[in-house]
Design goal:
With 100 residues, this protein is an all-alpha fold. 98% of the residues lie in helices and 0% in strands.
Length: 100
């Protein structure tokens, strides 16, 4: 009888120890999961920041390309306008010579 009580007490102690071990393991698991979730959020934030920077750089690049294109077009138009003015001047001179 005494032996059975001792065995029961030992079994209860082992069961209690096992429950405590599971409890600690579950707490550790929850902590690890929380850390993983935090790291994933931080990684998402870094990715989002990277995407925003890339989009900003792409927008800036596109804006600069458009500005360079407009400047080139403006220069071409100025050259055309100057050439037209020269041709009109030559035409006017020729007409003046013909009208004399």
């Amino acid at each position: 009888m005494e032996r059975e009580k001792l065995r029961d007490i030992e079994r209860l102690k082992r069961a209690s120890a096992t429950r405590e071990e599971f409890k600690r393991a579950n707490e550790d698991l929850l902590q690890i999961q929380a850390q993983i979730a935090l790291k994933e959020k931080e990684e998402e934030k870094r990715l989002e920041e990277h995407i925003q920077k890339k989009e900003a750089l792409d927008h800036l690049k596109k804006t600069k390309e458009e500005e360079r294109f407009r400047q080139k077009q403006s220069i071409k138009q100025q050259l055309i306008d100057r050439q037209i003015a020269e041709l009109m001047k030559v035409r006017d001179q020729e007409e003046e010579i013909l009208n004399k």
